[in-house]
Amino acid sequence: VQLVESGGGLVQPGGSLRLSCQVSGFSLSSSRMDWVRQAPGKEVEWVSTILSTGDTLYADSAKGRFTIARDGAKNTLYLQLNGLKSEDTAMYYCRRLRDRGQGTQVTVSS
Fold first, then answer.
1. Which listed site, 41, 75, 98, 100, has its alpha carbon 20 to 30 Å from 33?
2. Each residue of 22-35: pLDDT tens digit?
3. Per residue in 58-99, pLDDT tens?
4. How far apart are CA 72 and CA 16, in angstroms?
5. DSSP 80
6. DSSP code at position 44
7. What is the C-alpha separation between 90 and 78, in angstroms, rounded?
8. Are 108 and 14 a contacting pair, CB within 8 Å?
């Protein structure tokens, strides 16, 4: 199992980013996948989930701003981040069960 995140960066408040998670070693479309994040000095926070059925779930902090999606043919999970706020600054990880990648840093600052 391998998960590799990318797409993070520095963005101004109100900006957008699309995070990607390239996976291998399992079927993305058959798996529940999560995005979680961790800000410095804080605990890991769940952000969003996509179930094997395609149903999606969002933390209150993400509802209306973030969108989780997957492309089974590309073995890639996505998280579209819109309307970013300074409090969204964190390392973002994709996760399957207890496995997660190395993360991609999102920094929201003017």
1. 41
2. 999 999 999 999 99
3. 999 999 999 999 999 999 999 999 999 999 999 999 999 999
4. 23
5. E
6. -
7. 16
8. no
